[in-house]
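Lab notebook, bench 4. Still working through the backlog of constructs that have no structural model yet. Next entry is a single chain of 373 residues. Request: give me the structure tokens for it.
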Amino acid sequence: MKTTLTFTAIVVVIALLTGCSGADTETADTSATPPSTTSDTIVVDDARRRRLDLRDVTIITDTVSPTVTVYGTLDVDAMDRAAVAPVLGGRLQQINVRPGSYVRKGELLAVVNNPDIATLQESLLVLRARKTAAEAELTRQTTLRSRDAGVGRSYETAEAELATITAQLRSREEQLQLAGISPQTLTSATITTSARVLSPLEGWVTSIPTTRGVWVSPQDTIAIVVSRSGLFATFTVFQRDIDMATIGAPFTVQLTTDSTKTLMGVIDRIVPSAANDGSVRVYGNLHTSPSTSWALPGIRIIANINGPAHPAVIVPTDAIITRGTTSFIRIRINPTTYVHTPVTVSRRIGNLTILSDADTLVGRVVGVTKGFW
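Model written out:
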């Protein structure tokens, strides 16, 4: 008897719990689905249309010129960048340029002072004198040899001596030439303790990582000079916009801090990104002029890639509803009823959205509102 009562009590409790659960479920379903509405359709009366500021727009095909905006930097190839150092060490006596200065190839950048520079010039003058004497000796030995009056070994010695002195002289001349001292005009009266540091290329001085008065060696950089002949822009284009990054595509760049400073360019190289996320690294040559002195390597820029004009199916961006990873529009099927229709969004241009594979929707009417349905 005790067992029977216990079983009956359990059955009653389960029945009560089931009844309560069923009542809650029915109430939730009723509140979740308003009258005249299903998960795929919605019915809008005049009052609701006014409250939502709902308007109907016809889906059309129009010609669009999409633009993708990305951030990047300006740079130059290694051959267009020079870290200028003195050929001969010494105390930095003067600096003739400043960051931003435009310099021509061979223009004076700085002057280095060192007594050893005078010694180098003296050695060149000594070698010149020795060369003159060696040439005279070789001429004498040649004459004796032609008369069979000379010793063959003496001739060979004179010839070797002249070759050695000539090589040493060329080496000294190259050293002085690199130090900004003309060996052709050097005389005992023009010997100096100063060496000139010259620009190896035409371009702009981007930095001077030293100061006047310090001791500099051939390993110390006095100035960084870059040529803008090979100036290019580099930036990353992400996977969603990768179709815009094509060889030959035009683009514009502007300073992040000044939109009035702009340059035109053309994409010439595209490589996969090291991030392995489907993005690409884009490189494009730029068209510069003397008036664009602001365009130097390392500057942050905004790049706008201009896609070719082409016909596309477009709708107002406010017509797009996104749920998770799926986008919808609401197609009108009669004056008061709209149906959710999934679409593929290609790209947004201002307040318009381009749809992919949507030719069958052209001419249909879509509901547009900034409010909630």
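Notes after review: Residues 1-38 have pLDDT under 50 and may be disordered. The longest strand covers residues 337-349. Flag for follow-up if needed.
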